[in-house]
Amino acid sequence: MDQKYIFWPALIIGLMLAAAGGISMSMSLIASTTSLLILCCGLGIILGAFGSTATIKHKGAVVTGVAAISIVLLLVVD
Question: Which residues span the membrane (predicted)?
Answer without folding.
Answer: 6-24, 36-54, 60-77
